[in-house]
């Protein structure tokens, strides 16, 4: 007999009013090159406190994967389908019910970001391997790729900055899928679909985990007239995922636009160097396991930081 997992608001939140009955997932597959990711590789993996999912790229390089199909990892119901902009582009979130290792029914969300097209709507039931959309560029913000997340916490939605960004709320996608290719199925369960309790977080995008620091002000010497101190547009992360927040101080010599442009260029240069390093080590990356990939990713970041 299958027992329904009721412990923990993150699984079955009390505030949920709408439910849809969906079949238990009979297993999970990779979201591109189904079912095993053939023709694709992970450019960036899950990194706790930093990169919260996996970036899947076509093996042919460049934007050759633009418009390629993106598949649902498993049976479920769509709980979000919007063009979210803010560096995300088109996003689909599918909620899955599955039998966990203890024989209980658990819920999790899979997120598909930067899509060029969406082919499903909210509350639509989808099957394992059903097309959800196509690989995109987040309206030209990035090179074509799929940003793919798997979440334990079904409250997160698009408010990633409001929740812990470690394993308490996220799965490493390939590890999760590899352990659950075939699962018990055959039953329908009531799945809550309106559980995103936090407001949308416009300060994060699909590739950068930590939010931008809030705008700071300093005393201008005149009562009631604060002077803004601009924060970087997309501050670089430290390996631990922390975002350095500038201390209040004298007004910068350059205006805010020049500062933002300088920061953006520095970050773009850093990303280009990182991409070059990973491209040089692609064969190593393709053969690595998830735990090895996390360590490799940390070493690359450290190497880049030393070059700055």
Question: How do you describe this structure in short?
Answer:
This protein is an alpha+beta fold and 308 residues long.
Describe the structure.
With 308 residues, the chain is of the alpha+beta class. It has two domains: 3-192, Glucose Permease (Domain IIA); 216-307, no CATH class. The protein has helices spanning 33-37, 173-178, 256-280, 282-287, 290-307; strands spanning 3-4, 19-23, 40-44, 54-58, 69-71, 76-83, 90-99, 104-118, 125-126, 131-135, 146-151, 170-171, 188-192, 216-218, 227-229. Strands 1, 3, 4, 5, 6, 7, 8, 9, 10, 11 and 12 form an eleven-stranded mixed beta sheet that branches. Strands 2-13 form a two-stranded antiparallel ribbon. A two-stranded antiparallel sheet has the order 14-15. It is globular.
